[in-house]
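Section 5.1 Outputs to date
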Amino acid sequence: MPSPDRRPPLSPAFMNTYLAPIRSVWLGLRLNQIGPLLSLSACGFFAWAFMAVADEVSEGETHALDSAILLALRNPQDLANPLGPSWLEEAARDFTGLGGYAILTLLTAATVAYLLMVGKRGAALLVLISIVGGTLLSTGLKIGFERPRPDLVPHATRVYTASFPSGHAMLSAITYLTLGALLARVEKSRRISAFLMSLAIGVTLLVGASRVYLGVHWPSDVVAGWSVGAAWASFCWFVALQLQRGGQVEKPGETSLPPEADQA
């Protein structure tokens, strides 16, 4: 006599009706491959992280921790003076400049121009859409949240927009992670690919940390910027992997130029 706790096996009709479409979508999006699976998973995780931080910020739950961190980075006798030697403050301004519009625009333009010159028009368009789209997303989020800049300490650099999320943290994540992933993909050595991605992540973290050190952002602004920036970069890379299968984005080593043009 079968055990009452034993469940009957799933019928073939159930498998065909419910599981077959799921399997079809799974294979259609190539989620059985490590690249698409990791990029989509990263997008979901970082998007969730951003929404979690945004919810806490909206309810005022982060204010105490934000304030404590900002004040901890300042001289108690002179809040206009960040902790550390003067060269560290100057270095922080240099690092924060790596996430500024001027540097990122120049870097993006140079990258797109290079990709067009070597015949990778699909990759050039992907980079352009990723970074320009991220810029528009950053502007929209700032307008939507309209969080004031920190007023606990004097700002050590000029600011012009709302505070949440940090545009420098977000756009540096989008730009450097996108370019790092692009370079890592065309590099055959796994060690060098890991180095390139580590460098991209390191620069992104330095830019965000410098914004807090200079007193122009709450720490939660920066965490939110990193999160939404990484989510957008992961989503764009997932789309690129899907388009690559259809030939809209070139594979590593391929060129959009005809063979005779390559030989010229």
